[in-house]
Queue: 3 jobs
Job 1
Amino acid sequence: MKRNLIMLLMLVLFGGSAWGYYNWIYSDYPSKIRQLDRTLQLRDEKLISAQIIHQQLDLVSNLIEKNLALSKSDSLAEDASLPFLEYITGFLDELEIKLTKLEPGKKSARLDYVRTPYTLTIEASYEKLGKFINQLEKSERLITVEQFEIDNAVRKSGSQAEKTDLSAHELVIKISTLTLIKQR
């Protein structure tokens, strides 16, 4: 009986000490660990955000550098810039798009930028149009697509439609280049 009483006393003592340890000492650890994990996660997110911003700032500075002119009379801001026209015709040839007409418009100068419009008339499929727009988006120049019109050739008669490629459509695209002017 004495042995059972000692075992019961040891069991109560062990159970009480385990209960006390869990309630007074151990209960703070999980909340501290969760708090430290959350703090670590927030700092990791800030680090990743800072790395992304750093990469984007490099891209933005490169974009500004490629489109910055010292004055409105700079070669980058002139009407019908030859390097730009060569760039456009070069990747139109790569995409096998037929260029029918390319007209530079009248540039409009503001205090901090010059906008030079161009009107392109091309013959291409919808897929090639998408690739063309994608290529314009990837350009180092600031280019905006102002408007485009698609002639889907519904009005063509049967004999004319047989002679031409039905997937190719006549497209009129109005784009503009923007050239930033360096302020003094």
Job 2
Amino acid sequence: MVVELQTPKTAEFDVMGQRLVALTAGAAYWPAERALLAADLHLEKGTAYARRGVLLPPYDTRTTLRRLSVLIERHRPRTVYSLGDAFHDVEAEGRMDPEDARLLRQLLRRADWVWIAGNHDPLPPSVAGEVCLEARIGPLRLVHEPTEGSADGEIAGHLHPCAKVRASGGSMRRRCFASDGRRLVLPAFGAYAGGLNVLDPAFGSMFGPLTAWLLGGKGVYPFSRPKLLPDAPRPPRAAGLAAAR
């Protein structure tokens, strides 16, 4: 199958009757609540890896925050919800470049912020905003780690969903939103965040009829489960590195 990239730059889907807009940057906008939802920013992942001797360009935080700034300017949310792992580790704030820290403070003044604690950043950030383990808004429940089994109304991050589909000349693998209309797992928003195929056993029986909404350069494209491809098996060492993301 050849992928036809002829859809709008955003796509809309419902989660328990709530209309959400899937944005190409990897966040979701909830018009009824004027809320912007983003998961797994993983700020300062580059400097964390540098401390371990893995040299990456130290610009992931700036790239991530600038992308977030564009979305805030475009959609003017009342509230920004960060669904966990905003910071790559508990020392990440202290490693931020002063320019990046200023940009973050500017973003915090443009909306109310709610920080949901993640496994990488279980301690409350020192920046402004409310910190919680979950946020309940109407029929939806915002958390970091998805609940095993069914969980109607849950919106989560943590798993960094990606999907692989056939494309002209082969295949393509992209970050994606994963949903069955009853729950949603957001893609990782961070510039250096990795991804896990939605067909991986980690997703288990989380979804009914799954749709993966792939992020493309010009749009967000839905693919049903029968059109999704598994990843090729990786050598044990590569698989271990991916699991350690």
Job 3
Amino acid sequence: MSDEPIINKVASSGIITLDLEEMYPQGERVVFDLKPLLWQEIALKEDDLRAFVKAHDWSQYKGKFVSIHCSADAIIPTWAYMLVATSLQPHAVFVTQGDANDLERAIFTRLVQQLDIELYRGARIVVKGCGKLPVPLNAYVELSAKLMPVVKSLMFGEPCSTVPLYKAPKA
């Protein structure tokens, strides 16, 4: 038995773990469905939509992440989504178009776009995976693309067991 101290090679490696779950934006997600506003579930009447928009209590979306969607197979004009968005915007944290999955993808796209990658310049990065929260796949793809120009290396997994993804060419 040796008297030498145990050295944590992972801790001393200089690897930075980036966990998208730690960045997970807290807040209720809501899909605003246009289907109940349709006439016979096939068409949208402008006057009816405008009356609804004027009368609806938009404050109920305060602090929420909202996506505007139509679950019916109907053709909805672009301006209708825009009209609803203009009513949601003063209240919601975030407004986009699509279903619940689209909403989550859009939230994480914005999160990755806002990430200050200069913090990771020349660093060895492990993007942690296999979490408990529903981080969409596009977040990992977009994060990889954003980090590549500045990192020394990019890996996926846990610091003790990684999958190498990218290594910057030696200058």
